[in-house]
From TrEMBL:
<dbReference type="InterPro" id="IPR002931">
    <property type="entry name" value="Transglutaminase-like"/>
</dbReference>
<protein>
    <submittedName>
        <fullName>Transglutaminase</fullName>
    </submittedName>
</protein>
<dbReference type="InterPro" id="IPR038765">
    <property type="entry name" value="Papain-like_cys_pep_sf"/>
</dbReference>
<dbReference type="InterPro" id="IPR013589">
    <property type="entry name" value="Bac_transglu_N"/>
</dbReference>
<feature type="domain" description="Transglutaminase-like">
    <location>
        <begin position="177"/>
        <end position="247"/>
    </location>
</feature>
<dbReference type="Pfam" id="PF01841">
    <property type="entry name" value="Transglut_core"/>
</dbReference>
<dbReference type="Pfam" id="PF08379">
    <property type="entry name" value="Bact_transglu_N"/>
</dbReference>
Length: 298
């Protein structure tokens, strides 16, 4: 299945901005199960300096500077990806248990497992706190297969926590999310990652998009889609596996990966520095994810 994604972000400032320096993670990457067909970033007003680079995690990071005074900025990311055969997922009842996985990560000897170890460690927004260990423990008795334990943890987060866009912001600590039992996809991904890291397991944050479907008989509203977040869990010998705690499922055909890192701070869609702008500003975000017709073979 091919998808076209259009992500529009608009900033309006109370006073003129003299200049701004920005970095975006808005262009999807190619990875297992996903091929990037095309991607572009359009900035209005035009920027004087623009360049793409590959960051430490292999994502596309776009740097741009706007050096002329402005009170409004619009960043439009347009991309097309091809989702291939469903990604290989964990098999329930897999022989390797979670404790053996943690042991192999602690004694990493091969390059792939050694690379995964960085996702066992604390990161700027996710720390392996005792409270997270206590919450996770019910799903991780001794000897339980990793796939089974992760599936139950994801299901518990989905059941125990309420999706509430008003409850948190991008800086809300994971411990506060655990206490409030409310949040959004970013929060639930961070929570699951913290739980897994508290057990010595490797988990990383994934940003992207999820195609949303309108109710039967209703037209899809323009801009009604949204960016999304989930996580990946590392299983030695079987690679990285995707899990979506917001929807209690393993992503397959409708999740589009933009970037991954230790947590949100590594892959924030937009971040930067502005000079001026006053004390307040407004942000508008619109996302459209459109399934494209399959090409006709002649």
């Amino acid at each position: 299945m091919n998808y076209r994604t259009v992500h529009v972000t608009r900033y309006r400032y109370d006073k003129p901005v003299a200049s701004s320096y920005n970095e975006a993670h808005l262009l999807p990457r190619s990875c297992t199960g996903q091929a990037l067909v095309s991607a572009s970033l359009h900035i209005d007003p035009p920027c004087r300096d623009y360049r793409d680079r590959q960051d430490f995690f292999g994502n596309t990071a776009s740097y741009f500077a706007i050096l002329d005074p402005h009170r409004e900025v619009t960043i439009t990311a347009t991309s097309e990806v091809r989702l291939q055969a469903p990604r290989r997922q964990l098999s329930f009842g897999d022989a390797i248990d979670w404790q053996e996985t943690a042991r192999r990560l602690a004694q990493a000897g091969d390059p792939e497992t050694l690379d995964a170890v960085q996702y066992c460690l604390d990161s700027p927004m996710v720390r392996a706190l005792p409270a997270l260990h206590d919450y996770a423990a019910a799903s991780f008795p001794a000897g339980r297969p990793l796939a089974d334990a992760v599936a139950e943890l994801i299901a518990r987060i989905h059941e125990d926590f309420t999706y509430d866009p008003t409850a948190t912001d991008v800086a809300t600590p994971v411990l506060e999310i655990l206490q409030r039992r409310r949040g959004v996809c970013q929060d639930f991904a961070h929570l699951a990652i913290g739980c897994l890291r508290s057990l010595g397991l490797a988990a990383r944050y994934v940003s992207g998009y999820l195609e949303t479907l309108p109710p039967p008989g209703k037209a899809k509203l323009q801009g009604a889609d949204a960016s999304h977040a989930w996580l990946q869990v590392y299983l030695p010998g079987n690679g990285w596996q995707d899990w979506d705690p917001t929807n209690n499922l393993q992503p397959s055909g409708r999740h589009i990966t933009t970037a991954w890192g230790r947590d949100y701070s590594d892959v924030a869609p937009l971040q930067g520095v502005i000079y001026g702008g006053g004390d307040t500003h407004k942000i508008e975000v619109e996302v459209d994810v459109t399934a494209l017709p399959e090409p006709v073979e002649l």
